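Example record used in the benchmark description.
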Amino acid sequence: MMTLAATMGCSQYRFIHSLYSLKKNSLKSVSPLSGWLGLLLFLFFLSVRSVAAETPQVKVASINLCADQLVLLLSDEEQIRSLSMLSQEEAGSYFFERARAYPVNEGHAEQILTLQPDLVIVGQYSNSHTVAMLREVGLRIETLPIANSIETVFENIASVARWVGHEDRGSEVVEKLRLRLKNLEKPREPKPLAAGYDPNGYTSGALSVRGQIMEYAGFSNVASLAGIDSYGKLSLEAIINLQPDALIESPYSPGTYSRAQAMSQHPALLAAGLDPHVIHIPSRMTVCGGPWTIDVIESLQAERLKLMGG
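Model output (structure tokens):
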């Protein structure tokens, strides 16, 4: 019994000791073999629970905005040691309010080392010197890929959930998102022509998350007609020539009235007789992929119906 007391908590030991005393008094009416088997099974159950309870949670730090979002989505509060400083910006961070409860970092190795995390999640384009230094001291580093498709968004959710020790949680999130995607209303023909039109005319083609969002929402993409597969720029001339029914914009800092962000109100569009339906999507819902990506599809579906008079 002293061995048991050393391997489990005192309260568990006292409970087992009481159970053992109770068993001695009741063994006259119970088969000795079945009694001992029951006790052994109970001890095994307690030992499994004890090991599970003592398994430490992964302490995680993130130096990437998109990783921040998934860490906030999938981790327990006490696991999060630090997030990138961008995590608290309303323009780019979907969970900006939630992120303000945690310390932030500027992506410097010295900052991360003082936090003593078990895991650091970085992005594909995180500072290579920082990542190398963190690896050098033996920290576990995981790299979050850039999501260039909705499927990659799902894969990233599953990966982060696995890294932070909540694989089941990630599987549940992805399963629900796949179901929502499957149940989306199938768009009817004809599909209105739309252009993603961000500051300086940047746009997204079919080989991107935003391009796939437009496809699921039932829009034809001007970028494809302009020969843009992933990312590129649409000139004013291209917009005038292709005459989209809608412009979908998601500026990072709306309301700043910079020339770069006023493309959809350019006088040349008005002079050409174009009056496209302008759809605004908050940039915090387009900068990174996550469950909100399906929200964007549903919102664009509603805008398409509005555009078509449905």
